[in-house]
Each structure stands twice: as structure tokens, then as C-alpha cells.
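Quick start: load a record and inspect it. Here is HTH lacI-type domain-containing protein:
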Amino acid sequence: MKSRKPTIKDIARRLDISVSTVSRALRNADDINPVTRRKVLELAEKIGYKKSVLAAGLASKKSYLIGVIIPEITVPFFGTVIMGIEEFLKPLGYDLIILHSDENVTTESDCIDLLIDRQVDGIMISLSMNTKEDDHLKKAMEEEIPVVIFDRYLPDSILPIPRVIIDDFDAGYQATNHLINKGYKRIAFITGPVDMFISQQRQEGYVRAMERHGRSTSADLIVPATDLRRSVGTALDKLMVLKNRPDAILAFNDPIAFKLMRLLHKREIKIPKEVAVMGISGDDMGELFYPSLTTIAQPAKDMGYWAANLLKDRMDAMKKAKDEGKVFIPMSIQKFLPIQLIQREST
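Running the structure step on this input writes:
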């Protein structure tokens, strides 16, 4: 039977010190007692803890590994973001460790721990739909690992973490305005989880556009897909039993719109003749559906590129401050990227 590889927790347990102390010792951090550092390195060598990676890391004080955490691995949007990240970082010699939280905050926190254990040089993350606190991100920052957030974020976080995002309110507003301008009268909105911030913002944009045009925003026209795609059928059922059914449905994102279109086809409801459908994401897959999906496109590849750019800037700034014996003071940076209406056949 193959023996288990030793981990950073094994070193911490045998030396009776914290995991974070071991991590800082392995990364040769300046605030570690030299005696503690020597004990950690000697034990790591003795038990064979990532021996080759450790040797390279000690020589350069860099791992040339970047962690990327996404909430869903099957969603095309996040794959395109990763393409942008690679486009920026690969020429600089970095490799990616790509993890997915499966929309679970506990798994997300475990991913952070794993990346700290792997001594990555930086982390990029899009938060899960049920992430409400950022203690796990703070943990990475306390380990002197810079973090950048893209797409999904916590609006009330006080952590000075750069963000690369879109104006989700405007996305909801533009999408709804397009449907109104096309002549649709009763426009429904299938939201994401009610406590997800970007879902709230898109819904607020929808409501504002409807109200501005004197349209009804009754509660029966706003239905959440509480666990994203898996509950789209339930959301559609609630809309289709209404006495005055909607003639257009805006979906929180393209994957929900794709599921919605498939369900409408199965019920032999014609798109857009009987019900128009629109999404928000800009997934290339939307061109392959029949009818093709009208959407508000997010610049996913640019989002990845900019996130990587901001992460590299943060890594360089931290190194420069350390080399000069100065204290690095992180600043919050918010990079907004433009969105674009892509009109196709579904509206």
C-alpha cells in the first residue's frame, strides 16, 4: 500500500507549532525565529516533505505557482477567465493550480488552506454563492500571499483586496431595457440565490428599468433559482402557472438561460414567439443554441487578464517593500470592465 505523503500539518504537529508558523518557515519569512526555521527545514528534509519543491523555493523564495479558485468548473465563463489568466502569467514562467469550490464555502476555505500549503505566490478567486465571510482570505493575506478577487465578491469586506468586476446593476438594467425596447410587456426575472450580491445587483437593475418604463415589478415575476441551474425547472413552473404569464424571461446568467431554453423546448413553448429568453454572461455556447441566445456579455478573458495583472503588480509591490525594508500597505483597487449587448434570435 502506497504511504501517505507528509504534509505541512505533520510538521506542525511533530514540532508542536502552528501550521502558519511552519508555512512561514518554509517560505523563509523574515519574522520567523532562526532556531524555529532550522527545526522546520530539518524535519521537512527528514520526512521528505516536497523535497524538490522546497529546495527550489528556498533558492528563489518563489514557487512560481499561482492558485485560482472558481465556484463552478463546468461553466464556460470561468474557463474563459482562466484563459485570460494564463495569457498573462504563462510568459512570465508561472503555472496555475486550478481548484473549484463547487459553490461551497467550506470547500472554498479548504482550497485556500491547500494553496497555502503548496506555497503559492498568489491567489485569484471568485467566491462561492454562499460565501458570507472572508476569514479564509484574511488567512492567506496573513501568510503574505497576495489575493485578487474577480467576478463575485463581498461588497462589505474591509480587506484591501483588488477586485476585477463588472457593473452588475447596469447588466440587469441594460438587459431589461433591451427587452422593453423589443416590445415585451410582462418581463420576468429568474434570479440567482437571493443573498448573492451580484444577483441582488442584477435584480435591482431589472427593477429600476421596469419602473422607469412604468412596468409592473410584482413579486410573482421575480423568482429565484436558489441553487442556480438545478432549480430552474421549479422557477419556470412558478411562472408558467400564472394567470397572466410572462412574454419574456431574463435569466441571472447564461447557464440558467440555457437550462430555461431546454425546458421551454420540452414543453413545446416557442422562443421567442411565445416567450423570449435573455441571459447575462456572453458564453460562446449561446451561438450554438436554437434559437441563439441574446445576452449581456461580460469580457471574461479580459477579466482573467486584468486579475492576473493586478496580482503581479501586488506581488511585485510586496517584494519591493520587503527588499527595501519597508512596510507594505495594501490598497483596495476596483477595476470595472465594460459590458456589451449581444442581440441574437431568442429575443
